[in-house]
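Z., the sequence and structure:
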Amino acid sequence: MPRLRIDCAYDGSQFHGWAKQPGLRTVQGTLEEALDRVLHIRPKRGDTPCSLTVAGRTDAGVHARGQVCHVDVDEEVLDRTVGYLDLPPVAALEQRLRFIVPADIAIHRVSLAPVGFDARFSAEQRTYVYRVSDRYTSLNPLVRSCVLRCDCVLDAEALQTCADLVPGLKDFGSFAIPNPNGTTIRDVKSARWCRHADDGSLESGVLEFEIVADAFARSMVRSLVRAQLQVGMGKRSVNWFEQRLAYPQRDGATGPVDSRGLTLERVDYPADDELAARAERIRAKRTLD
């Protein structure tokens, strides 16, 4: 059965997150409905509805520029997408899917996945960016849905001092919620703050927190951002943030910040011949050893 890789993007403002939930508009639910429609899947005649596996299950309101998911489709079902199009089945699926998804979802590419590919478990690292506009500049209204507005001037130097403490293999229990039978141990590759030049562009003057890790626990990025923003506002000290990292225990000051500023920027994968081995390793429960 062919496995298809789907690269996509979405504005998360009107979605209740990625994961399908009864009665709620979600990215997964919307995409699966679109796939079932394009593939002419009819459960009444015994067809199995599409089921997507995603690289990063974004929360309600979180956006994505470089999301990746996969779906397994029977070859005969895939052939149904061609119709009158003079295209191979995968290309026909891509074209038809782009035509019917709503305006807040974009299909970048649909391709045959290499052997061993798993959108979630084969991923080598994920990059998220959180965007904030403080009083240093006025927020461009065209990006208001993906940038958090802050009513004070943030101390960018203090923010970066906090970010420098984040990378490494750590238990981020102060800033994350573990999945059932999971942990909050993650390996962060890099973390940094930077400010866009005040040049009149869409993101003029906007502060960005970029973080790269092998994977992220639930609410981890938004909680790290909220804690750092408290330091940047002068409400907390860098030492307080360092202690939260050293002693992984959640409290009222380390909950998540507003989701609107967070975007999944990209997901990176190893070479094709390393995909299966990577998936096998990442399924193992993480430890600090």
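Strands lie at 3-10, 53-54, 63-72, 105-112, 125-133, 148-149, 168-171, 185-195, 207-213, 262-268. The helical segments are 27-38, 75-79, 89-100, 156-163, 220-232, 238-246, 275-282.

Let me know what you think.
H.
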